[in-house]
Amino acid sequence: MAELIPVENLDVVKAIVAEHREVPGCLMQILQETQEKYGYLPLELQGTIADELGMPLTEVYGVATFYSQFNLTPKGKFKIGICLGTACYVRGAQPIIDKVNSILGTQVGDTTEDGKWSVDATRCIGACGLAPVLTVNEDVYGRLVLDDIAGIIEKY
Amino acid sequence: MKEVTFKINGQEMTVPEGTTILEAARQCNIDIPTLCYLKDVNEIGACRMCLVEIAGARALQAACVYPVANGIEVLTNTPNVREARRVNLELILSNHNRECTTCIRSENCELQTLATDLGVSEVPFEGEVSGTLVDDKSDSIVRDESKCILCKRCVAVCGDVQNVAVLGSVGRGFTSQVQPVFGRSLADVGCIRCGQCIVNCPVGALKEKSSIQEVWDAIADPTKTVIVETAPAVRASLGEEFGYPMGTPVTDQMAAALRRLGFDKVFDTGFGADVTIMEEGTELLGRVTNGGVLPMITSCSPGWISYIETNYPEFLPHLSTCKSPQQITGALLKSHYAETNGIDPKDMVVVSVMPCTAKKYELKREELKVDGIPDVDISITTRELARMIKEARIMFDQLPKEEFDDYYGEYTGAAVIFGATGGVMEAAVRTLADILNKKDIQAIDYEMVRGVQGIKTATVDVTPDLAVKLLVASGGSNIEKVMQQLKAGELADTHFIELMGCPGGCVNGGGQSIVPAKDKMDIDIRAERAKALYVSDAKITKYRKSHQSPAVIRIYDEYLGEPNGHKSHHLLHTTYSQKPKLV
Ligand code: SF4
Ligand code: SF4
Ligand code: SF4
Ligand code: FES
After folding, report:
1. Whose CA is nearest to atom 3 of ligand 1?
2. Cα(B140) to centroid of ligand 2, in Å?
3. Got the DSSP string for B166-205?
4. Smallest CA–CA separation between B168 and chain A, in Å?
5. Which of A30, A43, B139, B550 would staple B361 via disulfide (CB 3.0–4.6 Å)?
6. Which tens digits make up the pLDDT trace of B162-208?
7. Among the atoms of ligand 3, which is closest to the Cα of residue B143?
């Protein structure tokens, strides 16, 4: 994965806005690209987008919070995603989530204080045959049992 | 204009094309329930309380957004309609913190009224209530999410009417809320504290921060001299809280009530307004003759002051340096009145009654204090005064007519009209024209600056050699247009601009009596309340020009010397500075 751009560098977000600003309804695209580059959408970035578009910050924030794909807080270096699609759920995804949280001291949506881990519940990732499934960044772990979890976390 | 003909509950009607079913029904006295609808401001079809049946159509339609079409047949009272409205209302109530007996809006709550009117006696869907947050960090506004019904009227008012846009929809689904960005308090996002969100909220989710207890405590403290000053616009709205028709001035009963509440002296902010005219008029003349910064812009409205400080700090030199009438009255009470009556200003408590929620913040501002002492100690809204009168069990409509106390309770017609948009301008012109022509001019009704239009311009020949160009605007979005013009250099030949944060000026301030959205369909509260002020000006007050007020003449003779003099500058003038939007 490419290095994330630090939030202090506002040139990149300004360039993204400049590229799309003429297109009606461009806000979604801008938010997506900004999140790709910076990793998340803190106040500074949303404020810059709002100013550059001449739009109230409340509107930008409204869109950013309406769609669950946008992160308002930085994600960890390693992003754990636990699939909560039907197949995974039926095969015990919830106990897996609880286990992850108890090891890391987190709740769903949190990032650990050292910035190493973040935990999210995800929609179906299309690996139903492997349910229940957990991902760490791009790595996929399937057919999980509770005892696997500690070992997986240890690997990173 | 094209017209359309349709039937409503069997009755045939012809209305202009584009009229909604809701508006058309209103014209023939058929009431359709509404919650999210706010005429001209919020027409978004969100709450689904206004559902009606259209013969032949499959689904029920929201009357507030459905334009009447030729030949349709609307039914507003069928079993289907009644059932659907009731279910919607029950759903809203199931996610609402229903504590009516202790709620500030009880008896003036659109939700409560609907529940009673539609005969909802129990709420079958008991569930979790999504909002729990109470944000009371602001000096002026308290937000209680447990009461919010997500109608978004405040969002539209704050954004589209006031152009401040600090309230918005956040999130989606059950946990969605109306709130400021990033979980911040309203105190930290650039809210100008105008209170327009409060007076347009149908329920108790928004209210002013109450200062009532502080006032009771001060009155009960035998070591304090407690003095009250009332703003012009209050008398135009207070009566509504006691069942008087809108636009009835209740000045004399108000004075009587204030005395019975226990205030030691009952004075009027109109006194300070007259002094403001002397100071501001002199300042304007000075700027015109000495090449000072023009156009000069009024500085009475703390909502507007916050707006310029956060959005247009580069134009701050255009502001008049005069404090607002609330502060001027307070400053003179704590100096001249205190000295002449042998009272230590520290033992004085000045309470202001204001149509405004932003005044609660204004009085705390450091740049307005004189030697560290605030001009005014506590400010309450018109609504809070009404609550105090009720709590004290004073029978308002039975009160004798009384007058304000002497001197600081004296005011002219020019001061009274400060409460309506254009009033400060008119008051200033009356005095300027007299002073420059050195005579008592009789034609002083400057109609061209009156009325509720958002932006008004006029050119007045004050003398044969001086035509002054005036501009008057009220409400944030109109202010924004004016500031854009100023920025573009289009107002370079304008001399004087009056800007008020609330649409229509103080009569429609965020601290005034709350009028249901339904009533606002038929009446323009800005115009109705302004009438009370113009009637006082024309018929009741003895003097109609600030410089003729004996109290004003006396305070300059005895104390201030001359307008814009040394003492005035110390007590009555200030400067403002840039403030960040987000803290
Ligand atoms: S907002 Fe209205 S319905 Fe809700 S508790 Fe207050 S008075 Fe009752
Ligand atoms: S007080 Fe005025 S600026 Fe503040 S949230 Fe309400 S409407 Fe907006
Ligand atoms: S705070 Fe009041 S006006 Fe705003 S959305 Fe909630 S209920 Fe509606
Ligand atoms: S949907 Fe019509 S009043 Fe709310």
Report:
1. B112
2. 10
3. --EEES-GGG-EEE-GGG--GGGTT-----HHHHT-SSTT
4. 5
5. B139
6. 999 999 999 988 889 999 999 999 999 999 999 999 999 999 999 99
7. 1
